[in-house]
Amino acid sequence: MQHLGLTMSKDPEDGRLLEVEASLAPEVRMITKMSIPLIITFLLQYSLTVASVYAVGNLGADELAAVSLSNLLASISSYGIIQGTASALSTLCPQAYGRKDYKTVGLQSLRCACLLLIIYIPIFAVWYWGSYPILNFLAPGIKATYLASRYLRRLSFGVPGFIVFEVTKQYLQAQGIFHASTCVLAFCAPLNVALNITLVWDKHIGMGFEGAPTAVSIINWLMAIMLVLYAVFINGYQCWCGFSKEVFKHWGRLLTLAGPGVLMIEAEWLAFEIIAIASSRFGTVALAAQSIVATTCVTVYQIPYAISVAVSTRIAWYIGSASEAAAHTATNASLIVATGLGFVNAFSLAALRTYTARLFTHDEDVIELASRVLLVGAAYQLGDVLSCVAGGILRGQGRQYIGGWLNLTCYYVIALPVSYYCGFHLKLGLPGLWLGMVVALGTISIGAVIAVLTTNWRALIQKSVEDGLSDYQRTICSDSTSLLSRNDRSVAARVSHNMLSPVASASGAEIMAS
Hints:
This protein is mostly helical and 514 residues long. The chain has 19 helices and two strands. It has a two-stranded antiparallel sheet with strand order 1-2. α4 packs antiparallel against α6 and α11 packs antiparallel against α13. The longest helix has 37 residues, at 102-138. The relative contact order is 0.12.
């Protein structure tokens, strides 16, 4: 556990493992250190989408509209579902690792991969055979809809690679291996740019418009293969459990966490897409400004999201190791980091708003409007960062349902009505639409922070212990430290908490009572 920055206490008399020690300042430093490779990872991963838009943009307005529409539909109908489902591993894998239940880390990852591949079967069918009829029904006779359907058909072959990459990334992150995906993307992101340009524009092998989704599909598979090879040959193989029939059993806990995870992501993404669609009613200038603001805010969002992943993993480690005080300290440290970053993001976005807009366009009307909206975007940065990081804490705790219901309620009961009222009734235009997001994210952040500060850590630790006992009782592991009696609950408790817990030597009854 030393490589994770976890310091174990030892009883001087018998050397038993006690609680993991944590103090505020070192915890802030460790969260920051863990976040740096993740920030690079998510920024590079976001660049994959930007590269395809850039490569296709000069082909024409129809092609640009088609790739934007395709990316929107792909995010809502596939990528959001994949990332939401995979977020269940943010709870299951790090908690298992914290318990030293290493085989369960691999087992849950395999279960999630199989679940996602099954879920993707109907999505593939819709993308490949049904995308054009659906798009043509929504917008009949428009060339962009035909092009978008072709884009989705090509892109559909790369999504399984994306699934494997996401699950493997979660599998490695649970073990504290954050730099592996960064290294893979550091190689693949520049290659993606070159491949997009080549497959779209090259005179000999270029495919035109369809070259962009082809490049993305190739890169998705390359990322998956490279990350799996890293886990097999370099680091991360220690938690591999082997492929067995157990992979297809006992999916209940995974599904319980996956559903709210999907709700949490889809509710937010869809709300922002509705704002984007509504902005088109204000004309071309507003639509262009919306594109600039959305791209900027999504790019900035990668920073707190990366921190939330690091925080989620760390909180789950502490819960798995039954370290209540350390989990509480890590929560406080996370909120301190989030508050500081929120103010930095807000100040930076406000100070650089005009310069940022000029990076995208030379149209003065668009620059002026985008600058005003970016000022509104700066206003919600504190709420955005706090809600994001608090959401990470909730994922580490296994309480995704709180974030899911908060997002659903605040975006659709509060944000969208406020956006409509300010944008159209008060005639504030595009800035008015974004005011709804300020209100929503402020409300979500307050609710999420209250939820994490009032956490019953003992109940979460007990749930993690019960999960560990269930996993052990279902599976016979080859590791001698993982052998459990199927009948003696107290023996099971003692063995499982040779894993990290302060109640390592307690009886089963004491564990369950605690």
